[in-house]
């Protein structure tokens, strides 16, 4: 037993002094920890200071609630920090990276592709400008997210746009755009406008049939493209992590807010147009009233001038009109008979 203790002491002495942990207890000084009891006391003290029962649960609950609120609250603008917090930069394994995705890849770490968010932010802003323009023109916007964790996201995003927003959360029915007469009745296909003006896909690889139909129907598409997908499958790709619901919520929130802004601009323009038409109608009405008043004033003035110019027979100095011809014989006999 004494021989074992001696070997342990010799092994501890062979450890360099700089590699030994130092104690932060004032009573032990600034000397290294020499015994296992000192090491145990140090670990217990650190655990008590870090995981205090009065502060640790409160701090963790506040952190979780703040992060959850930040994710649920849509942001109007895309920033690298918000995308990093949502994990949008995490891609798939480097062995699964699509060759066409290389321009959007930042590098490889731990055999996983890291997406370059410096490319994601401008592409997301471009997509937001497109959604704003489509909503401003009165187009119909369709959100598609067929995973269970994306159902509430697409529903909320479509609700922000109002009557111009639609969503599909279960699955895409093949033939919705290319075979409407067989899928629905010919009367419904003829009377109902079933082709959207813009389609936004939060999980495009699961909805490749929808992408093909949109291409055949000439409908522009926006999609979240991960490192294992070809960015050319959609018209406006957004390179990001397509398996993160936080990333999908940020992207859908930014695009839906842009659509709401376009709708607000459209309503404002309609109000201004109605006001302009009303002002033009009022101006035309009052111009017509002024013309009629001017015509009446001219007519009254002409009547006054005509009355002033008419002669008065009682005050006239002119001699009465006399016939120059001599009266006839019949007229002379009549005058004699009267006298």
Automatic annotation (TrEMBL):
Recorded superkingdom: Eukaryota
One Pfam entry name: Ribosomal_S2
Coiled-coil region list: none
Region (Disordered): 300-329
CDD domains xrefs: RPS2
Keyword Protease: no
Record-linked SUPFAM superfamilies: Ribosomal protein S2
GO terms of molecular function: structural constituent of ribosome
Assigned GO CC terms: mitochondrial small ribosomal subunit
Acidic residues bias spans: 309-325
GO biological process: translation
Keyword tags: Ribonucleoprotein, Ribosomal protein
Family, as annotated: Belongs to the universal ribosomal protein uS2 family.
Stated name of the protein: Ribosomal protein S2, flavodoxin-like domain-containing protein
């Amino acid at each position: 037993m004494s021989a074992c203790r001696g070997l342990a002491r010799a092994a501890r002495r062979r450890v360099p002094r700089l590699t030994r942990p130092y104690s932060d207890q004032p009573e032990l000084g600034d000397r290294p920890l020499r015994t296992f009891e000192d090491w145990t006391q140090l670990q217990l003290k650190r655990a008590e200071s870090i995981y205090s029962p009065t502060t640790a649960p409160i701090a963790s609950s506040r952190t979780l609630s703040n992060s959850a609120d930040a994710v649920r609250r849509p942001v109007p603008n895309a920033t690298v920090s918000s995308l990093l917090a949502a994990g949008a930069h995490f891609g798939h394994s480097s062995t699964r990276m699509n060759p066409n995705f290389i321009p959007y890849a930042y590098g490889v770490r731990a055999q996983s592709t890291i997406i370059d968010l410096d490319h994601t932010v401008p592409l997301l802003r471009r997509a937001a400008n497109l959604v704003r323009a489509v909503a401003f023109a009165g187009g119909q916007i369709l959100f598609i997210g067929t995973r269970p964790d994306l159902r509430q996201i697409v529903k909320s995003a479509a609700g922000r746009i109002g009557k111009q927003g639609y969503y599909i959360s279960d699955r895409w029915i093949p033939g919705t755009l290319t075979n409407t007469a067989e899928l629905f009745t010919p009367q419904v296909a003829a009377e109902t406008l079933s082709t959207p003006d813009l389609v936004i896909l939060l999980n495009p690889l699961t909805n490749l049939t929808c992408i093909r139909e949109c291409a055949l129907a000439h409908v522009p598409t926006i999609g979240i493209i991960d490192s294992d997908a070809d960015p050319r499958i959609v018209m406006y790709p957004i390179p990001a992590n397509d398996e993160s619901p936080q990333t999908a919520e940020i992207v859908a929130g930014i695009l839906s807010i842009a659509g709401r802004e376009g709708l607000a601009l459209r309503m404002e323009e309609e109000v201004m147009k109605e006001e302009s038409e009303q002002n033009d109608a009022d101006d035309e009405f009052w111009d017509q009233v002024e013309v009629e008043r001017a015509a009446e004033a001219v007519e009254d003035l002409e009547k006054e001038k005509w009355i002033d110019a008419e002669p008065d027979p009682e005050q006239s100095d002119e001699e009465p009109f006399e016939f120059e011809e001599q009266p006839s014989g019949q007229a002379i006999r009549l005058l004699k008979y009267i006298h």
